[in-house]
Amino acid sequence: MTKPITVWLTPSGPNPWKVITILEELQVPYTTHSFKFDDVKKPPFTNINPNGRVPAIIDPNTNLTLWESGAIIQYLIEVYDTKRLLTYDTLPEKHLLNQYLHFQMSGQGPYYGQCRWFNFLYPTKIPTAIDRYVNEVHRILGVLNTILEGKTWLVGEKCTFADLAFVPWNCQLHMVLGMKEGEPLQTYPNVRDWHARMVGREAWKKAMMVRRRLMMEQGLEASGMPKGVRNIVEYVQLIAKGETEGEGEGESGELC
């Protein structure tokens, strides 16, 4: 019998939900160790991941501790996707999938994250930084829209781990760009339709149910901050005072 994998995460950010969605798709048992963002740079989490970034997993079935979401996804696919539900056996397809996963890790994630930081979280508006990262977000969306022209999925005729890796950050696009929810993808119809196919999957819906529960437990807003906190400076000040204990009154915080 497969023992549950423990996923260490802070519930607000996108990256843990790539891993949770893959686990749900493969029906691999797991438990979550959810903790506050305040503690990502402290033990015991830094004993697991010295880089202090979520997610990380501990797999008792292989005695492996692993961090970096892309590496975790590749591991889960290699070890647990024995029926090739989210991957392929053939050489070209396997490497194309890794290509797109690397594109998500090196392109979508960092640029979306920096855009959200300067456009939404950082209290001082820096126009040159905002313009740079807004343009990069649109460039990434344009690349995806071109790749998906005439296609349902990135590789082959089925949804794979490479497709699913893009979902959590695309779900935060409205916060990344400071637009209304659902508005950013209207300019990119291929991405919009691809994204809609994925958020309709049962695995994603189940992952979002878990996220909603964990967000509520910590009293977090959809932005990932405690209720009433407006920006990162206020959040850092609260962390320093030790006043960020959640009261379970936040919004549901669903990504999509």
From TrEMBL:
Q: Which InterPro entries match?
A: Glutathione-S-Trfase_C-like, Glutathione-S-Trfase_C_sf, Glutathione_S-Trfase, Glutathione_S-Trfase_N, GST_C, Thioredoxin-like_sf
Entry keyword annotation includes Protein biosynthesis: no
Q: Which key words tag this protein in UniProt?
A: Transferase
- Its Enzyme Commission number(s) read 2.5.1.18
Q: Where is the GST C-terminal domain?
A: 90-218
Q: What is this protein called?
A: glutathione transferase
Catalytic activity reported: RX + glutathione = an S-substituted glutathione + a halide anion + H(+)
What top-tier enzyme class does this entry carry? Answer: transferase
Using the record's annotation, list all stretches that form the GST N-terminal domain. Answer: 3-84
Query: PROSITE patterns given for it?
Result: GST_CTER, GST_NTER
Query: What family is this?
Result: Belongs to the GST superfamily.
